[in-house]
Design brief:
three-stranded antiparallel sheet, 10% helix, ten-stranded mixed sheet, 16 strands, Immunoglobulin-like, mainly beta, 259 residues
Length: 259
């Protein structure tokens, strides 16, 4: 080994000794972003659970977008609870880059039936630090949310409460919905919306090929719908095996939403 090689090797070893282990401040910062209890809710980076139906509802949102320039100090979630029953709110990325997840929400005064319910959480705890992937920070528009009613477990038949995500001003009325499903295999799917007790669909959408593992948004305009219960019926089959796909999602629509 010549002099230059010895100097290079010495420099590389010194650099490794200085760089490892990582600085305590960085290690503590990363540990603070992992999914954990934040008091009345849990939040952080985690992988999504692998269990669930073959067609998983990952988000049920009131269609609403409130733009911003600088990151707001807090994000807000609002939903209408038609009757008293167990509520399970989950907020997550629709397309996972940081694997952000928030759930286990326990409001101080409980969830209230027959009215709008709000939950707010600070962005400084986790969200502000999620800014290194693909040069783009995590923003409100990246998030989806769903309130499952009665059970926290995704299922083929379930009821949900659509959620509005915002930071300062909630929507005053519901103009439409965006439900996002994620299949575990490539599927041919039909989505139909029915008013409860009605046999004729209000709307039907057919998708000949829905990609496996990819979020698939379905949007409906609901401006003319009367208040009441509705259901989404999903039917189809897995393209590789012809295995049938069947799912039902019930939700309560209320036109007047904000204050």
């Amino acid at each position: 080994m010549n002099m230059r090689q010895r100097m290079t090797a010495t420099f590389a070893l010194a650099w490794l000794l200085l760089a490892w282990p990582p600085p305590p401040v960085l290690a503590q910062s990363q540990a603070g972003l992992t999914y954990q209890s934040r008091g009345r809710y849990s939040e952080g980076i985690r992988t999504a659970p692998s269990t669930g139906p073959s067609l998983d509802l990952i988000s049920a949102l009131v269609e609403y977008h409130e733009p911003y320039k600088g990151l707001p100090p807090a994000f807000q979630a609002m939903f209408y609870l038609a009757k008293q029953e167990p509520v399970y709110l989950t907020i997550r990325e629709v397309e996972a880059r940081y694997f952000y997840w928030l759930d286990q929400v326990q409001p101080e005064s409980g969830w209230q039936a027959g009215k709008q319910n709000r939950f707010g959480w600070p962005t400084a705890t986790v969200i502000r630090s999620l800014n290194w992937r693909q040069g783009a920070p995590l923003i409100l528009a990246d998030l989806g949310a769903v309130v499952r009613l009665g059970s926290s477990t995704p299922a083929k038949v379930e009821r949900v409460a659509p959620v509005a995500l915002y930071h300062s001003r909630p929507p005053q009325s519901v103009e439409g919905y965006c439900f996002v499903f994620r299949p575990d295999a490539r599927m041919r799917l039909r989505f139909e919306v029915f008013a409860e007790g009605q046999g004729k669909p209000l709307e039907s959408q057919l998708f000949p090929s829905v990609l496996a593992g990819q979020p698939h948004p379905i949007r409906w305009k609901a401006k003319e719908w009367p208040d009441g219960w509705y259901r989404i019926a999903v039917s189809g089959y897995v393209l590789s095996s012809n295995a049938p796909v069947d799912a039902r999602v019930g939700f309560y629509h209320v036109r007047r939403f904000g204050n």
